[in-house]
Every structure is written in C-alpha cells, then in structure tokens.
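Quick entry between incubations.
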Amino acid sequence: MLYRNFNFFFLVWVLLTSLTACQEEEYILPEPISQLTNDCLKRTIGPSIASLPIEFAYAMAIPKSQGKLVSAQVEASIPGGTGTYLEHRSYYTNSGGVDIPVTVGSPSTAVDNGKSSKVTFTVDTNAVTLRYYYIVPDEAKGQTVSFTFSVNSSDGKTASYKMGPYNISKMSIKKNLTVSNGTNAFISIEDMAIYNATSAAAIPDKVDLVYLYRASPASFTHALVSPSADAAYLPSVTLPTGLKKSTKLRKVFGLQDRNLANLQFGIYVDDIDLTSVDMTDMPNYAIGLRAEAGVWVETADKKYRAYIYINSVNATGSAVLSMLRYTL
Amino acid sequence: MTIYFKIILAVLLLTSSFFSCEKDSFVDEDGLLITFRSECFVSNFELLGADFVTVRAAPAIIDTVAQTIDVLVLFGTDLKNVYPQFTLATDCKLDPKITGKMDLSNLSDSKIFTVVSGNRLVRKPYKLIIKYQ
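Done. Structure below.
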C-alpha cells in the first residue's frame, strides 16, 4: 500500500514540475558611459614582418558634460621603425567607400626616445578614432611587442588600453626586384638582392640562383637555376668565375602571399611554413615559372630558406620577383 | 519453480552477452567492399609535379591490352618528386598504393602498378613507361 502511494505521489510530482515554466529575465537598460573611455582593434592581419606596418584603430570618447579630449598617445615596448606614427586625423567613409580625413590634432611627435607617439588635439572633440601605424623594426625580429594606448581628457582623467603581445616574425621581406635575362640575372638570398655578372663575380659565395629565359623548349620559359645545376638547364649561359652553389628549389603554384603580391589575395606565408616545408630531394633548378607562381628555396649551406614569388613576367626575358627570407 | 526459471533465464542472458558477432567477410584487408565486378583496367592517368601542376607534355597513352601506360613528360621535369594519379574501373584498387610523392626517376626500370578488380579475383599489372619530351 505504502509502495503504491509513493508511486502515485512521485508521478504527481513529475507532472507538476513539468508544468513549471522558466521565468523570463527582464531586459535591463545598459548604463550610459559617464566617464572617459577607450577601445582599440588591430586592423592588420597576417604575420608581423620587419619593415612592414602593423595598423591599429584607437577609439576614445568622453561625455560632453565631463570635458573634452586633450591628447592621445601610444607606447610600444620596442620603439617602432622609421615611419611609425599616430594619425592626427580621424576618418569617415563616404558613400563611395573612400576614407575621408578630418584633422583633429597636430601631427604626432615621437616622445620617450621613440617609444611613444603623441597627438595633441587642436579641436574641441569628445569622441575620435585615430589610426596608429607601427613599423616593425629589424631589432624586433623573433621577439614580441606590445602596445599601451592612452588618452587624457580636460577633466584630468586618463584611460588606457593594452594590446598584444604580438609575435614578430623572423622573416625578412624584399619586394619588386626586377631580374632580366643575361644582365641583372644573379640572385643572392643572403643579400636579398639582384646582381649583374660583374657584381656577381665579386661575391661568388653569395650568389644562389641565376634567372634565365628561353623561349625554346616551350616548357623552359622563365627559370631560376642554381649555378651548379646540370648544363642542360643553363643553356648558353657563361657563369662568372667562382659561381658554384647548389640551391634547392621546390616549385609552388597558387601561393600568392598577400605581402609579396602587393596586398592582393588573402594568403600569408609565415615562419612555420618556411621551417616546415620539406626540401628533401628537391632539384637545384625550377623551370617553366609563370606569374603568380613561386618557389621555396633552401641555400646550399642550409643557412636560409626563402619563398620567392613571381609578381609578373615579360616574354622579352624579364620578371619581377619578391621574396621572404627566413634564417634557420 | 519460477525462481529456477528466472535463474536459468539470467544465466542464458549472461552467456549470450559473451558472444561477439562474426566479422563481415565482404570487405578486403583494406576495409574496402568486395563486389561482384570483374572489370579491371586503368581509364585515365595523370602525373603531377611538386607544385601539383601536370608535368605531362601530352595525354597518357593507356593500352589496356598490352597493359602499358606511356607518358611523355615536359623537359626538365623532376621525376624524383611526382604524384601519379590513376583513375580505375569501378570498385578496383591499386597495388602498390600511392600515399604521397614518388620517385620515378629511374627510367630504365619501369614501375609496375597492379590493378585489382572489384571482386578481387582479377589482377592486371600495368607497366608505367615515362619518357622525356
């Protein structure tokens, strides 16, 4: 009997609980910001490479009743390279999608031994967004860098916003190097430069590749060949004395790095790509190269790895190359 | 009497739980379904370079009677790092398997790839003959 009663009450309890609805949470109006406040976002994506900018947008605002903005500044943990600055203009986008500047302060000045960039506002303003361009210096390679954005208002208040730390790539970049068949045809990965035969003869240990163009056979066209490659891949080429390096090459197609391709496409080559690419048994020549193709390169002494991107080719026997180099 | 019946039933249930199902015998050692098909041939062949772009100078000539695949590759092709791609008749498989890049640079020693039919009863070895342009 007791058992039956227990079952009955249990059933009733289950039924009752199933009828209970959750109480709806009431919406609470957010409190309006009543003091100096700031926010920041990083606009640049992809790896941070020495000599290239990292762009931020720093927004700051204060209620009109509290005062106005007086100055804004950014402090980087490693002083930025030449060209680092905090924008003194605020931008809005017009109906045509073009960013239109509005001057709100005096051009930024470098303070604190170049670690900081400061803008003093010259117009009465309560809300503004400033862009910050940090040029990654060479000495930051392989390190991390962080930023402190801060703003001062006329009521004596300060607000700050920390960004980072961000890893800085160990890669070096060189863009738009023009090579031409028979003249400026000698490529040095170490120097990230192009030489003619006379200059190459003076630095034979630094020349890793030779650019050449041959219309025949049809599969040859634009080529990057090691000085010590088989003579079949260096037809009618008289190398300057001393050139003998055997550089490994691996052809790639469809890897249009955004930085090398002058901000086209959305692909990035990063440090990990250069360290993990398998160069075992790769040949010391790459023929049949075309625009938007590329080659992974490993120098004979295994000191450097590089990614050479072909920006454009010309059927008269020239090409424009860009490269990323990683020191192993 | 009822208790005995329950005990016997429980013992039966326990013992039956120890039996496992017999493995399905309709799959081969690679876990692929063995079918009734006996067709066994290569219908298409492709050869890609390290950049995954074709290195063929012309379409591959597949002779299903002589069981040969003749491929003419472009001048300068690095045959140490190539990716062969076979298209086979339905349900067939290839032996040896292609798991990544291959070294086909030894032109004097033609590589043999065997096509195995869907019913796994027919095996046809194809000789891959590569020549430079």
